[in-house]
Amino acid sequence: MKQVVQNYKSGELALLDVPAPACKPGGVLVRTAYSLISTGTELMKVSEAGMSLLGKAKARPDQVAKVMQSVAANGVSATYRKVTTKLDSYTPLGYSLCGVVEEVGAGVDDVAVGDVVACAGNEHALHSELNWVPKNLYSRVPEGVEPRHAAFGTVGSIALQGVRRGEPRLGDVALVIGLGLIGQLVVQLLTASGVRVVGVDPAPARCGLAERLGALVCGEPGSDVVENAIAELTSGHGVDQVYLAAGGSSNEPVELAARLARDRATVVDIGKCSLNLPWNAYYEKELDVRFSRSYGPGRYDPGYELEGRDYPIGYVRWTERRNLECFVDLLARRRIDVEPLVSHVADFSVAVQTYRRLSEGALDAVAVLFRYPGAANPAPESVTSVTLPRVSPARVAPKNRIRAGFVGAGNYASSMLLPHLAERADVELHRVATTSALSGANAQRRFGFEHAGTDIETLLADPSIDAVFVVTRHSSHAELTRRALLAGKAVFVEKPLALSEAELEKVLAAVAESGNDRLQVGFNRRFAPLLRQARNRFGTRVGPASVRYLVNAGRLDQGSWYARQDTEGSRFAGEGGHFIDTVSWLLGADPASVYACATPGQADLQILLRYPDGSTATIGYTTSGASSFPKETLDLTADGKVLSFDDFQRASLFGRKRSTSPKLPQGRDKGQEAELAAFVDAVRTAGPMPVPLSSLVSTTLATLAVHTSLATGAPVRIEPRG
Question: What is the pLDDT of residues 56-74, one digit of tens each?
């Protein structure tokens, strides 16, 4: 087999043929799929190997001290032979990988041959085709986590242990100094813990990456932007924790930490930087300086690492292995995203050239992976992403009554929206604009609009109108919404919000330009009284959930404009947001990824949604079913309970006892009246919109991602940013 090695005396790097390791008791033999280059630690070793003997001595004074002790004990000649022999030997590189179990040693019963595992250890998770890994240094990788992402397990554990040493709490403000590989992971872990993060790094690209991954503000050392942000976030007190994830010989990180930390803050050293602490600054603030020892408790303990003796969880909650398991679980639940950190993936056959490019600066990277022969290399998920604009809270005065304008007054508007609004004392139906003059006249006669016409511009320009309802054909929704937002109106637009990402970007650009985010999309099912009662009866969910949602959509009438896919988008693009929004509301989160497949020759779809906490939902959207079968049935399973919802007529909860709501005698309330009430109240009181803009955007992206997934045959990640 092949393995990357280095001669510390000459600096030579090589990809050697070496014997395959045996599978010893207490561990497993793992065939590597991906291994990760630590661009900090490993490149430091590579750089030191190229130094002169004097340079090596200056770089590693700890080793010089050991040599001097050996001279005192064994004499100069014996020590010289020992040192030169060690320097002139090949040593391995690497300590973080993911692979497949090829053989299981005696005493191991928690994994089997064929399982995918993340592995750690600078003697066991090497850049090598095969590795023997002891029991406490591997973790089984859950289904759905890509091997290339699981290869980050060790560096993820290092970052996780560093964060644990800082003991962050909800609402804290933390400063991360150094936004390399470890720093970027620390930023995400802190953000996932409810901590507000500010970052510092001399590289603008790394600052930008950290902001995309959750940091509020990042800048160069000494930047006014960073110091002003910390002053604003902490009311001038300083940050609660500082995480030193920088390397090098500069003392600037510890000096910056002292300047920006609050009184009695915690400073955690994760990287390897100069620690010449300015005594006065650290003494006056009584700063608590802590060190984070690699992957966690168990590191450097042969009894733990080699002999498999675990520490009792009651005494040591987070060990090396438990940190590794935790990080892999965070990947599975999409609380951590390592894909943006992957700068380069190289075949293992060109490992030496890759190290050389990194050392010479020809390859500027945060994280580099080696891909091994035979490694599964599925098509990566595509990503659908937009940037959410930042807007200030609405500066709209509350009022007792709002004026509404309607663009469109077709069958849905006239049967499901206008009757409810016409009955409200706090709504004045002021103006309606329709394509046909006659339909406008009919709406005016039936619902009491003060003005009716066909001119949309007049309606949008009317300064007395507070809210515009867009109830037209799908192809016009995004453009009309954009124009209404720019006109300063609150907007209620029937689904869909947009038929393409380009249309969605234009809507968000209008929000950014106008500062007006007063937007609601007609996702009414989350407001259905029976469904809301059922969710309340289910109670607070603890573990991940599984949702099955069958939509028996049926066939369209011949000639329906819904079938004009070339102009109005697909049928699912038009109404699928309803069902995705319902599931997301039930689960209390927005989808992280979408995968879809279609029945050949039919318009039937099967859609799999994954959520950040590990929950999944399948939406079966069918047009080939029987019309006598209910249109919408839904089951939510979690925590030993099942919520069964039957077409807005009956809901049952199965747990220790079964409870069933009475069947509605007539009709189905799908939530339109309650949705309109929530929207009107928000406009009238100048309160927040019923559904956050980020959720509306995520649902729209997920709906559009269905067709992307159908086209590519791969999952699509959903990433609204900002």
Answer: 444 456 555 665 676 566 6
Residue 623 pLDDT more than 50? yes
CA separation for the pair 502, 494 (Å, rounded): 18
Neighbouring residues of 406: CB distance < 8 A, sequence distance ≥ 6: 413, 418, 429, 431, 432, 433, 443, 449, 468, 469, 471
Q: CA 404, 409, 410 angle in degrees (round to 5)?
A: 155
Query: Does 81 score more than 70 pLDDT?
Result: no
Please, what is the Cα angle at 287 between 285 and 292, to 5 degrees?
A: 165
Taking a C-beta distance cutoff of 8 angstroms, is the pair 96, 38 a contact?
yes
Neighbours of 226 (CB within 10 A): 22
Query: What are the pLDDT digits (tens) for 357-374?
Result: 888 877 778 899 999 987
Q: Does an H or E element contain 138, and which?
A: strand 138-140
pTM (whole model) above 0.70 = no
The pLDDT value given to residue 43: 64
- Three-state DSSP at 717 gives strand
For 423-470, the pLDDT digits (tens) are 999 999 999 999 888 888 999 999 999 999 999 999 999 999 999 999
Side-by-side strand order, sheet with 2-7: 13-17, 2-7, 90-92
What is the chain's mean pLDDT, rounded?
88
Tokens linked to 603: 């318009």
Residues with Cβ within 8 Å of 365's Cβ and at least 6 positions away in sequence, in order, are 39, 343, 344, 358
To 5 degrees, how large is the angle CA 610–CA 616–CA 620? 100
* String of DSSP letters for 576-640: HHHHHHHHHHHHTS--SEEEEEE-TTS--EEEEEE-TTS-EEEEEEESSS-TTS-SEEEEEEETT
What backbone torsions phi and psi does residue 280 show, to the nearest 5 degrees? -60, -45
Residues 526/581, Cβ–Cβ less than 8 Å: yes
Do residues 156 and 149 make contact, with C-beta atoms less than 8 angstroms apart? no
What is the gyration radius of the CA atoms in the chain, in angstroms?
30
Which residues have a Cβ under 8 Å from the Cβ of 652 and sit 6 or more positions away?
Answer: 643, 644, 646, 658, 659, 660, 661
Indicate whether 378 pLDDT > 50. Answer: no
Q: How far is CA 199 from CA 227, 331, 686, in A?
A: 11, 22, 35
Element (H, E) at 80: helix 76-87
Calculate mean pLDDT across residues 305-327: 96
> Where on the phi/psi map is residue 541: left (φ > 0), alpha (ψ -120 to 50), or beta?
beta
| Of 29-43, 192-206, 512-526, minimum mean pLDDT range | 29-43
Asked if residue 157 lies in contact with residue 186, where contact means CB atoms within 8 angstroms, the answer is no
With the C-alpha atoms ordered 364, 366, 371, 377, is the resulting torsion angle positive or negative?
Answer: negative
Cα(23)–Cα(298) distance, rounded to whole angstroms? 22
What would the DSSP string read from start to end of 446-473? HH--SEEES-HHHHHH-TT--EEEE-S-
CB 254 within 8 A of CB 275: yes
CA-wise closest residue to 587 among 622, 633, 636, 621: 636
- For residue 701 the two structure tokens come to 């992206």
- pLDDT of 271 above 60: yes
